[in-house]
Amino acid sequence: MIIDDLGIGGIDVQLGPFLLDVIDQQSQNGLLLITSQYPKEKWYDLFADPTIADAILDRIVHKPHVIQLKGESMRRVRSRKR
Fold this sequence. Notes:
Layout lengths: L1 H4 L9 H15 L20 H11 L13 H8 L1
Helix pairs in contact: 2-3
């Protein structure tokens, strides 16, 4: 279920508060790793509830260390080698 909710369809209204709780707890511990294929400018649009989106994004964009990966998909590279 979580994979579908975090996928192309966005983050379901019911999943948002749970995700906020997890992110809040982990951000207080100082260790949080988030990966995304979406540009951060589009993250807000993934959330069904704008209040939850504000709260979550406030916590994850406060002090980020962003690593932007570039290049071709490893799946494509590996499929050509077969």
